[in-house]
Amino acid sequence: MVQIDANSFSILSAALLGGLLIAACWTDARMRRIPNLLVLTGTLAGLALNTMLPAGMGLFSTTPGAIGLVGALGGCALGLCALLPLYLLRTIGAGDVKLMAMTGAFLGPAAISGTVLLTLLAGGILALAVAIWQRVLRSALTNARTMIVHTMVSALTGQRAHIDMLPTVGTLPYALAITAGALLQILLERHDHALFS
After folding, report:
1. In the predicted model, is pLDDT for residue 22 greater than 60?
2. Residue 65 contacts by C-beta under 8 Å, 6 or more apart in sequence?
3. What is the pTM of this model?
4. Which domain does 12 fall in, by range?
5. Which of 46, 70, 95, 103 is deepest in the core (most CB within 10 A)?
C-alpha cells in the first residue's frame, strides 16, 4: 500500500478544488450559470476528503489534514448563509451561493469566513473593472448612491428595505470573484497568514 503524506493530500485537494472552481468560472462566464451537478459533486468531494483523510488543521493549512465531517458541514453551511442575503437582494444568483457552500465544504468554517471577505473584495474590484471597461463608472456610482439612499429612507420610514437593481453593467460572472477569494485564502493559509484561521 502506498503511503501519501498530508502535504500531498493538500496539493491533491487544492488541485481538485481549483479544477472545480475553474469549471464554474468557465460556465458562469459563458452561460451565466453554474451547473448544479458541478456544485453537488464538489460538495460531496469536499465532505469526503475532510471525513476520510488524516486529521489536521485543514486541507490547506501549514499542518494539512482533514477537519472532519462536522467541520466540513459547518464550512458548507457558513458558506451558504454568508452569501444568501446577497441572493435574497437579487445581487447574485443561486449558483454563486451554492458554489460558496461547496467551497466551504473544502475549507471549513474558519477559512470560509476569510474567503467570503476576500470574495466580496474581489467582486467589488471586478465590478469596478467592468464599469471602467464599459465606460459606465459614473452611472454605476450614481446608481449605487441612489440604491443606498433609497434603502436607508425605506428602512427609516418603516418600509421593508430592499434594493432595486438599476441596470448599469449587466450581470457579472461572480464565480470569478469566489475563485479569487478562495485561492487567495488558500495561499494565505499555506503561508500561515490566513484570515480567521
Report:
1. yes
2. 6, 9, 53, 54, 55, 56, 57, 58, 59
3. 0.81
4. 6-134+169-190
5. 103
